[in-house]
Amino acid sequence: MTEAERRATLEAIAQEVAVCTRCRLHQTRTRAVPGEGHPETEVVLVGEGPGFNEDRQGRPFVGQAGAKLEALLTSIGWRRQEVFITNVVKCRPPENRDPEPDEIAACAPFLTRQLEALDPALVVTLGRFSMARFSPGARIGQVHGTYRPADAASGAPEALAYAMYHPAAALHQGSLNEALFRDMQGVPEALVAARARRRSAATPTDQAATEAEAPAVAEVSAAVEPPAIAEAAAIDPPPAIVPSPEEAPPAEHASPPAPEAETRPAAQLPLF
């Protein structure tokens, strides 16, 4: 699929989302939030559902959690325009409650079609509801900061899924801030691994392509410094999606504050 075809497909999906009435969420939304980003990117970030500001603007991650997400991306030298950002449900649940199973199911075809059009190498799941689609049965407190092949029924069967806490979690549990930035440092290496996996699957007898990724892993690891822990300035009502206490990392494993990081250019690991 060409870039123009991808862009047209994503726009068509967005237009359908804008007028969707498949579940009860359309009754209370201001605007649907289909998602946005570069149609040629290899990285898709999937959150859980729009919040107050997203519902008003029709764009994903534009409130306080969005500022945190942008700080996370900046810490590895990426920009939000270079990835694609969307959610499991495209309309805001009232009072930012958790999305219900039937609401997730009603929205699932939209996300599937977006993933089919984008064909990402890496899906970064933000929060437990997103993680559940790509890694059923996993517990976020156990698998955050790790990746595994995405579930075949997720819509991205050839991608790796990298689990992270939702950025909003750090706004309510300060101890998760360090975990978020630390986990974000593993995303570029996960992308390198996803590319190598794809090459291996395309040419299983050709090991040279896979071996060629090894220097890239070292380069990415050397290029990325510990992140700057920047607090978001925007204020919006707190999202309801917060990891339960048993999912949070044990206190004895908390890391000391990370030193400030130098921002690196995204060109060190192009995303498309």
Describe the structure.
By secondary structure, the protein is of the alpha/beta class. It is built from ten helices and six strands; from the N terminus they run H-E-E-H-H-E-H-E-H-H-E-E-H-H-H-H. It is globular. The protein starts with a helix and ends in a 49-residue tail after the last helix.
Order of helices and strands: HEEHHEHEHHEEHHHH
Give the integer mean of the pLDDT values: 83
Largest sheet: 6 strands, mixed
State the helical fraction. 40-55%
Q: Strands of the biggest beta sheet: in what spatial order?
A: 1-3-2-4-6-5
Tally of helical segments: 10
Descriptive key words:
globular; alpha/beta; six-stranded mixed sheet; 10 helices
Task: List strands and helices in order, with pairings.
Blueprint: H1 3-18, E1 36-37, E2 43-47, H2 52-57, H3 64-75, E3 84-87, H4 101-118, E4 122-126, H5 128-134, H6 140-143, E5 147-149, E6 160-164, H7 169-172, H8 175-184, H9 187-202, H10 208-223
Parallel strand pairs: 2-3, 2-4, 4-6
Antiparallel strand pairs: 1-3, 5-6
Summarize the structure.
The protein has ten helices and six strands. 40% of the residues lie in helices and 9% in strands.
